Write the structure tokens for this entry.
Amino acid sequence: MRLDAFAGEWAVERAIEDVRAGRAGRFEGRAVFTPDAEGLAYLEEGVLTMAGAGGFAASRSYHWRDGGAGAIEVRFGDGRLFHRFHADEPMPDAAHDCPPDRYRVGYDFRAWPRWKADWRARGPRKDYRIVSTFTRPGASA
């Protein structure tokens, strides 16, 4: 899959399971991949609701770049590498170390243009799973 296949708007639904805290949550919103000089700028905005708390506005941004040889690099806003995955695979995975924590992601592109990112974070103070589902607005889920 090429980087430009992600360009445009996506509806995002995210299920959050905080194992350590014994809480669950949801995020609903949109993500927009906007072409820029180096690839795609990713901006996500929506409402995050955690069990026992009201919903609040949440957002995040990344830079998605062509990593060469069929890879895509996802970078933080300051340009640091977050992770890299092989977009030519139907179910690529990647990891990000942020000592003492480790983050692992498995992407699933088999039902494209519906796709998922399944994150697992573990460390001395973290143990959670976040599954995000991306669909084009107006597409049936």
Remarks:
- The two ends are 21 Å apart (CA to CA).
- The CA atoms of residues 101 and 123 lie 4 Å apart.
- Strands lie at 8-18, 23-36, 39-50, 56-68, 71-75, 81-86, 93-98, 101-108, 115-122, 127-135.
